[in-house]
């Protein structure tokens, strides 16, 4: 007769592996959904303050996407459907596109009526090579203008009127998000994309006889279940209106629409500045710089738990080791994790800040997602290499930095900012806690600690201002 | 920070590498649980797909306080239950390990012990609720308390179902041994 243990062992030996095609299918579906949901989830970062949503919503990205689609369609027309439009010289449209120096357009988001008061006005200036050089966006809703964004010289500034906050953010740092943004305007890349998609686009061009002012272009992709409609000015060959639709079973679903209100009209240079910002507006310098040994954005080592909470609200999780905690039940030391950052708190003081988002970067632009090689180049070779089962670590103690490196792709997964390690003779050290054979010893304020093995001592060392008030001179090391 | 927590964080930011890593980490466990519950390869594959698609879909507002594996196993169980109640065809009567699900598809079956294969086959004979408790507890590593919550019953009921499952499996295995 089999015992319960034997039956359990037999059951544990049952193992099935999905085959490779299943893996591919599952991952392809899940990744597609992830991509879509990440785009849609502009609230990803903060379910909390509006201000963060505004950052992530990124009007500029939306515009870039729209512009990309337009250019794709134009190129498609030019290169793949010349024969269909003998009377309409599409190349002229392409040529006209290159002559655009400025454009004023109005964008209506998906599902918004053309008469809706929720729209965004854009003023765009291109340089002589056709690259985007300056941009302004006024965001309207039922209450009037609710946000202003300008972008020039690689800096984006957004003034959120309701919050009276000005967000300043670099857009040319090498985070993937912004690389993608820049690529949208890379014609070579666009041509590659078009080449891949040429079989998928069905084009119809309707050039009404008589003295109609417009030419109507429709591009339909059954693969992407989408239709794009362009109204082209017959005289200038420039696009007047752009509309996109999702092809659904129950009918076409209106998507984003853009009206091109004016081309090549002079734009007052002051339009690319933020004017009338109140003096008392709070200015936030992007999401934040990582300053080694000191701070991450607004968060500084030594802050209290309440100071952190006042800026970020309720944390996603609080843990220490395998245990989880709540704000009402906090141990002496714990890790408090939020969307982009985590805080290791000891005796109500932040002793380490972890960053796992590329929204915080070093001043030189490096951040999470960059390669190990770039970090080594930027911070030098004076680090301790630590190897763990799941990741490797570059520990720059003298800089107060620790980088977790992905085992396989060698990219930075997490950056920790800690107190800089100060060498002997420079200042006294304070001991935060001691681990003795894996067991924590509460050293208290005055109690001497006796350690018999060298390996027993693993100190968490703070600055003279210290976190525990006990310095090494009080320890008896036998 | 545990790897799962870290991966979830990255997933929230749309990191597909994190998604892949989570898939690689749990694909076998989840697929095994799904197949053991419903004994249908295609349905189990659908379960696996549903769970990861849902994970990707909800990544942005997913907050798992306890453990990710438990959450994923529960998700598989929920879908498996739906499959079982809904469209899944009745299980065949054969007692051989060569159930239709396992021989006609090119899955790699990693059961190298004949007894485990027999046990797998016998799982089909358990009522679904008992089978579910047994599999989630033994293969999914879930606690009775969590399984009870999943089945909307008391912890004691879940434990009883587990006990019944063990007794029945024991009887079936012994009967086979005698033959």
Main features:
A: 478 residues, alpha+beta, 9-stranded antiparallel β-sheet, 31 strands, 22% helix, disordered C terminus, B: mainly alpha, 9 helices
Characterize the structure shown:
The complex is a heterodimer of chains A (478) and B (179). Chain A has 478 residues and is an alpha+beta fold. Helices cover 22% and strands 34% of the residues of chain A. In chain A, a hairpin with a 4-residue loop joins strand 9 and strand 10. In chain A, helix 4 (59-80) packs across helix 7. Mean pLDDT of chain A is 71; it is low at 39-59, 75-86, 172-191, 424-430 and 458-478. Chain B is mainly α and 179 residues long. Chain B is elongated and about 55 Å long. Chains A and B meet through helix 1, strand 1 and helix 2 of A and helix 1, helix 2, helix 3, strand 1 and helix 6 of B. Strand 1 (16-17) of chain A pairs antiparallel with strand 1 (108-109) of chain B, so a sheet runs across the interface.
H/E element order of chain B: HHHHHEHHHH
Number of alpha- plus pi-helical segments of chain A:
9
Count of DSSP helices of chain B?
A: 9
Neighbour order of strands in the largest sheet of chain A: 8-9-10-11-12-2-3-4-5-6-7-13
Portion of residues in beta strands of chain A equals: 25-35%
End-to-end Cα distance of chain A: 59 Å
Helicity range of the residues of chain B?
55-70%
What kind of oligomer do you see?
A: heterodimer
**What structural class is derived from the secondary structure elements of chain A?**
alpha+beta
